[in-house]
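User: Last request for today: this protein with 6-O-phosphono-beta-D-galactopyranose, please.
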Amino acid sequence: MRYDRLSAFPDGFLWGGSTSAYQVEGAWDADGKGPSVIDVNGHTKPGIADFTVCSDHYHHVTEDVALFAEMGLKSYRFSIAWTRIVPDGDGKINQAGIDFYHRLIDELLAHGIEPIVTMYHFDLPAALDAKGGWQNRETVAAFDRFAKILFTEYGSKVTYWLTINEQNMMILVGEAIGTVKPGSPKSALYQANHHMMLAQAKAILACHQMLPAAKIGPAPNIALTYPATCDPEDVLAADDVNSIRNWFYLDASVRGIYNTVAWRYLEELGATPQLEDGDMDLLAEAKPDFIAFNYYTSMTVAKPLPSDEPIPGSSDQQLFSGEKDVFLGVRNEHLPHTDFGWEMDPIGFRNTFRALWDRYHLPLLVTENGLGAYDRLENGAVHDTYRINYLRDHIEQIRLAISDGVEVMGYNPWSAIDLVSTHQGVAKRYGFIFVNRDEDDLLDLARYRKDSFYWYRNAIASNGADLG
Ligand code: BGP
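Assistant: Here's the final one, the structure of the complex with 6-O-phosphono-beta-D-galactopyranose:
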């Protein structure tokens, strides 16, 4: 539907930017920080940056936040490294880690930037991983304790909390991201998923009890899945994928139930998690205040190939290739794609907003969206018109979604500043601010404002009315 008159972005809309601790901070072992799965698994290939220094945000906090303020950010969505706070996951607290995030949060507040805190973004403490990680039910208690430490420390300063970043991607494509060991059986993954659900529920309850004015929500990656054609079997495959990829996670987080189609799929796989008495009551009791979600691209699927035909593979988290007897991932011929093969679908963003709103009727907060590209620094400038175009197209669709009646709280594109991609190094840049380093050479780590920096500053200053 097109409208003659569009609704404006609401007052107080959270125009922000997003990062995660392990991809931006560096200082991987500084000041008592313990190792996380990312540090231990390495998950790096020759010629691709590792996560030891990243953008060295840990040592550039003041400078970086000043740049965010100059850009006019109203919010900054970042994650707290569990291993800075509790180096081994469930033991001694590390005061230097606690202090670091106080400094960051204080700096943000001093510039009028609202902190949006992700409690856990892929970097599980390695010590917990060694004891089975999320497959071990004891990790639920460790997370509960960690959450309460965060609420006690930062609760008077932070209003918006996100529990777990992209839990669905960790289960569906954790190998590509580097959070699960290659070859992990589905039964183990879905048991881990159940434990994460319990951990999230406990954090939500603790947040509501300890911080009545705060708001907390899940932060999955949600992207509507389209059928390749109007063949009813393709439509059915798309519906299956929406259940398995999207609704399974949000139905549990928001409604406290396991989606029936996804559950049946798990039964077929012999991968249903073991539930203990009281688990489902806990999920039902914990009600999030909003849904945060990350959106980069939509997905298109066809009916599965005949059982005996092999599915062409993919090692990227957004390029789902298919699953035997469930679906076949296909290219959407209507969509262009990025240098890294991700399809660009701004209208899919609006479609996804609508589907989320129809289904859950909770306010929606965008915590990631953006374009990974090979940027070039030339005479101190980066002319990233392609990124501006991507962001403009997506912001326009947010405005249309708001005009559709969807309640949207804010937009925090990935990434506020350049950082290291999950598995494609620093060459895959997303930021408004260029960080001068390459894969192997740290150069001088100097910061440069890209063209998108100035463009976003105008967009924010006009509350989304001037998109250039
Ligand atoms: C999301 C993650 C981020 C981020 C982003 C871009 O899945 O939450 O951590 O990195 O995707 O992905 P990539 O770095 O693989 O390009």
